[in-house]
Amino acid sequence: MTAEPVYLDHAATTPVDPRVAALVSALMAAPPGNPGSSHAPGRRAAAQVDAARAQVAALVNAVPEQVVFTSGATEADNLAILGHLRGLPAARRAGAEVITLATEHKAVLTPVRKLEHEGYTARILTPGHTGRLAPSQLEAAITPATALVSVLHVNNETGVVQDIAGIAALCAARGIALHVDAAQSAAWLPIDMAGIDYLSLSGHKLGGPPGVGALVIAPRRRATLEPLVVGGGQERGLRAGTLPVPLVAGFGLACELVRADREAASNRVAALRDRLHAALETLPGVLFNGDREYRSPAILNLSFEGVEGEALVTALPGLALSTGSACDSATGEPSFVLRALGRDTQLAQASLRFSLGRGTTATEIDIAVAAVGQAVAQLRAQSPDRPLPVADWQAAGDDIRVGEAGAVRLGTWVRLLLCIRQSRIEGARFQAYGCPHVLAVCERLVVALRGLPVEAPQPGTPEDWRQAVDAPVEKLGRILIIEDALRAARA
Ligand SMILES: *Cc1c(COP(=O)(O)O)cnc(C)c1O
Questions:
Q1: Domain ranges in the chain?
Q2: CATH number of the domain located at residue range(s) 18-259 in this protein
Q3: Fewer CB within a 10 Å sphere, N or C end of the chain?
Q4: Which atom in ligand 1 lies closest to the alpha carbon of residue 202?
Q5: What is the structure's pLDDT at 399?
Q6: Helices (H), ranges, 282-361
Q7: 419 catalytic per annotation
Q8: CA distance 382 to 376
């Protein structure tokens, strides 16, 4: 059994606090009760929901009536964005605009795009290179048709903290509704509903159970918000469906636990983030993604020059963290957030997001520093600007052949080195920049080449090599580059 990796992916999901887990499982095992029923078990369930509603409200300085429970922040974002525009009075709805940022979470950008298909207008702003939106930039984008502004409080990839107070003042002065996705900030930063119309929260980002969250709604917006889920009229008609009482209660407790030590936890985690950042910044070719002043205590995003993103993550089996590399994303694109901040494809892919949690320790940080330093050094040792690893062959006076193909900027570059003695391939080595499959094929190929007569047929086809390392069909193009390098070396 391999040891559990060091978990530095709290921005993806957090461990459920043991006190929350105990409450959720106790309620799961308890006698049933639908909070909509008027008998005693129903009233008990309703009381549990009421308590949770108050706990969630207290975390963001709201009152319980403002809290609408949802399945998570994704649903809350959808409800705020789709529901606000669709609920506008008919006269305002035609041509109404929503403003958001290119660096937002997909749970924001996707409903915004959906609105565009419904005939609304979307203005997607690209913030400056740190990712922080200047209120003046927002001000310049606002038009009389602007109905909603949607921004993340803390960006989930870079940890950038937006100027919510400045943005809220601007929106309030013009009567524009403001939606803030606080899924990444609620665990760490104070939040005040004052000036905010809609606020999204997620249980599993703050030590609560997955599958529950909330949209907190300013009273002035209640009457017009168009629900997404209709049915039994629960949540005062804004979100139908029987509430998952154990999850709701667990989410409420998690909010209370966060509130009890948020400042102390933030300071402790910020010190660990600084320890990680300071240590990794001593490596050459490390670039910081984000804003050095306005940043989450729990997120650090760095790009590494001269290494390939997927290969970097594969070289870190002892760490659970996220990357901007194609391997990780379903779309096969490098991080669109880092691209929007001006990073090139290589740097956007070769990025690591370290996200810390309340349980993260200094020892774990030191393990991460050592592992990253070693992985980066190992991958860079194979990069194009390194000297050819042939000093021993040169000393022996052998016939050395070198073949190169591809380019770092295209994501794959391979250099094959052959040492020919008495018409046989005495030795074969490679240097490469590429995904783990490319590196694996190179490793096998140099072994297969050793000892072959120079004139022998090529050992297998790129398709054979692809299958041997279990690479997906889409990787064949990259593997063909290895064949090109081999042909060049044998020419
Ligand atoms: C995780 C996350 C979401 C999605 O939350 P779910 O509760 O998983 O739906 C939305 N926005 C941000 C910023 C997030 O980090």
A1: 18-259, 262-380, 391-490
A2: 3.40.640.10
A3: N
A4: 7
A5: 93
A6: 309-314, 336-340, 345-349
A7: no
A8: 10
Residue from 14, 69, 205 whose mutation best tests the ligand 1 pocket (most atoms within 8 A of CB): 205
> What residue's CA is closest to ligand 1, atom 3?
73
What atom of ligand 1 comes closest to residue 211's alpha carbon? 7
Tell me the two tokens of residue 399: 């016939």
The CATH number of 391-490, from 3.40.50.720, 3.90.1010.10, 1.10.10.1100, 3.30.160.340, is: 3.90.1010.10
For residue 74, which atom of ligand 1 is closest to its CA?
A: 9
C-alpha count within 13 angstroms, C-beta hemisphere, residue 388: 18
- Strand pairing report for 322-323 and 351-355: antiparallel
Asked if 313 and 324 touch (Cβ cutoff 8 Å), the reply is: no
CB 254 within 8 A of CB 17: yes
pTM over cut 0.85: yes
Residue 452 is classified by DSSP as: -
* Positions in the chain short of pLDDT 50: 327-332
Most informative mutation of 74, 204, 301 for ligand 1 (most atoms within 8 A of CB) = 74
Any atom of ligand 1 within 6 Å of the Cβ of 183 = yes
**262-380 classified as CATH 3.90.1150.10:** yes
Contact 250, 203 (CB under 8 A): yes
CA–CA dist 293, 371 (Å, integer): 27
Q: Is residue 105 in contact with ligand 1, taking CB distance under 6 Å?
A: yes
Q: From the CA of 72, how far away is ligand 1's center (Å)?
A: 7
Q: What pLDDT digit, counting tens, does each position of 107-137 carry?
A: 999 999 999 999 999 999 999 999 999 999 9
